[in-house]
Structure formats: structure tokens, C-alpha cells
Amino acid sequence: MSYHTTQELERILNQRSIKKITRDGIFTPAAVMLMLKEEKDEYSILFIKRSERSEDVFSGHMALPGGKMKEEDENKLRTAVRETFEETGIDLDREGRIIGELDDFYPVNPRANHYVVTPFVSLLTACTDVNPNEEVAEALWIPLSDLKDERTLEVRIVEKNKIRVKDYFFRYKGYVIWGMTGRILYKFISLTGHLF
Predict the structure, then answer these.
(1) Which of 17-26, 67-76, 175-184 has the lowest mean pLDDT?
(2) Pairing relation of β-strands 28-39 and 115-124?
(3) Which of 13, 27, 62, 112 could form a disulfide with 177 if both were Cys (CB 3.0 to 4.6 A apart)?
(4) Four-point Cα dihedral 15, 104, 183, 40, nearest 10
(5) Beta carbons of 130 and 168 less than 8 angstroms apart
């Protein structure tokens, strides 16, 4: 990523007012990592396809690396970095750079809407392989140019939990990114797509 693009991306993400979700009652803090890499002047985002597991409310979904905050995590950024390493084998402390943070999100799935999820954005700075753990069925880098192509996007108004929400469906070679991950991706592209 050129120095100018990195600087501009940091400026866009860090000079805006971040919308934080505050919840009454019991909720679970979580974080995900939207990781970029540049290869041959093409930028891609790392997605994982979660393994099919009955105890996982996001079983089989396309997602960004991430998960629940643990007691030992100093903050949500540390959660995102730890989970990224656990799920993909990528150590962002050594092989990446944190660029910024997006607005908080929460899943509208009734089985998961107690989560408050903070997405972080990072840039891979070293050439490294992805080594998924057992929670991950597959990991793939999807070019931003494909995700920005309006032909890959379908917007639907859906009602979940008696709430009407816009759902963004991104399609790429048989994969479908939707739900909270689709909303996070749409937000990121809306803010920064012109840079890529």
C-alpha cells in the first residue's frame, strides 16, 4: 500500500466520530479484524468460512477473523489481534499494522444479538501464509475490486427480531458474505472504497 494511501486510510478512519453501541443488561464484547493486503497493485481482504459446528451461532458463515473478548485481553483491539492469530496464524504484532477502527455492530440473529462487535482495520506488512485452525473451514483473500463491483452486491430489507434492517449480500465465486459481516464490509467500502 502506498504511503499516501495508508496515510489517507488512517486519516479517514481516525478523524471520524466512531459510533459506539452501549447496551443495558448483559452483553458480550467482541472484535473482528478487517485485514488488507496489497499484491501486484491489487488490494484484498481476508475472509474466513467458519467450520460447521452446532455450538457456533455463525456456523458455516463467511466472516472476518475475530471473536469474544477474554479476561486477559487488555482491550478489544487485543481481542481482534489474538483471535486473528488463533484463527489464521497471522501475527499482526509482527506482520501487520493497525490502521483504525470502524463503528460498533451487533448481529441481528436472535441467538447472537447479545454481542457488541468492534471491527478493526489492519494492513499486512509481511508476506505470510494463512494457517487456519479447526474453527475455520477455509480462508481466502477476496480482491476489493470484486467486492466494490456493484454487480456483486444485493441490498435487501429484512425483518429480524421485529426490526427492519438493510442487509448487504456480496457474492464472490460461490461465496456469500452477508449479515453483520456484510454490513461491516459495506461500511468500510462506503468510507474508503475511493482509495482502492
Answers:
(1) 17-26
(2) parallel
(3) 62
(4) 50
(5) no
Q: What is the dihedral of CA 195, 96, 32, 40, to 10 degrees?
A: 40
CA 180 to chain centre: 9
Q: Would you say 78 and 29 are in contact if contact means Cβ atoms under 8 Å apart?
A: no
Q: Does domain 3-195 have CATH number 3.90.550.10?
A: no
**pLDDT, tens digit, 9 for 90 and up, residues 134-157:** 999 999 999 999 999 999 999 999
> How many Å is the Cα radius of gyration of the chain?
16
* Beta carbons of 195 and 8 less than 8 angstroms apart: yes
Instruction: Give Cα 62 to chain centroid, integer Å.
Output: 10
